[in-house]
Each structure stands twice: as structure tokens, then as C-alpha cells.
Write a structure and sequence with these properties.
CATH class: Mainly Alpha
Largest sheet: 3 strands, antiparallel
Number of domains: 1
CATH topology: Arc Repressor Mutant, subunit A
Helix content: 55-70%
Strand content: 5-15%
Radius of gyration: 18 Å
CATH architecture: Orthogonal Bundle
Number of helices: 6
Distance between the termini: 51 Å
Structural class: alpha+beta
């Protein structure tokens, strides 16, 4: 089975750790390429490449501000990832309850 293109599938796009770091950094507020590069200690061409992928799948939005382009997360596009990962929340809650019960039984 062939993998979906990184530029068409949000899950493949966020499989790259630097892209996840960029999304995490942009969650607080919109930023320029330079701000992202400085904060994450990446070079600007690399950040631009990753932002292009994130733009292509719709996980970030861009707007012009004079000579700069400002980027921000697109929360609505991240809903797909959130909904999918949320399916596993019940599993982890169950595991935590089991750990708690086990620890309390040892007292």
C-alpha cells in the first residue's frame, strides 16, 4: 500500500518532528519565518520548506504584513488529527485508573 503524499495528508505532514515543533510554536501566536527559525534554532530555508508543506495540507495559514509573511495554525484543519487521537483518550484513562488502583492496593 502506497503512503499518502506528505503534501496531501495532515498525518504525514506532522510525522516530521520539526513540523510538529513549528505547529506547537505557532499555537501561541502568529509568527514570521525569521521568528520561527530563531526560536527553534533552524535555518530559514528549512523553516520555509516545512511551512510550505504545512500550508499545502492546510495546517497553517499565511498573511502578508508589509514585506513579511506571518504564519499561524489553522485550528479547524487540526480537528481531524485531534478527533483521531481523541479516540485513544479512553484507553489512557483506563490505564491510569488501573495504575492508580494497583498503587492504592499496595499501601
Amino acid at each position: 500500500m502506497a503512503r499518502a503524499s506528505t503534501t496531501s495528508d495532515p498525518f504525514n505532514a506532522i510525522a516530521e518532528p520539526r513540523r510538529r515543533h513549528i505547529l506547537e510554536f505557532l499555537a501561541a501566536e502568529e509568527r514570521s519565518v525569521g521568528e520561527i527559525a530563531d526560536a527553534l534554532e533552524l535555518n530559514q530555508p528549512s523553516v520555509s520548506k516545512h511551512l510550505h508543506v504545512l500550508l499545502d495540507v492546510g495546517l497553517v495559514c499565511a498573511r502578508r504584513d508589509g514585506r513579511r509573511t506571518m504564519y499561524r495554525t489553522n485550528a479547524e484543519a487540526l480537528r481531524t488529527v485531534h478527533d483521531w487521537s481523541g479516540m485513544f483518550a479512553q484507553y489512557w484513562r483506563s490505564q491510569l485508573r488501573r495504575i492508580k488502583a494497583h498503587a492504592e492496593a499496595k499501601r
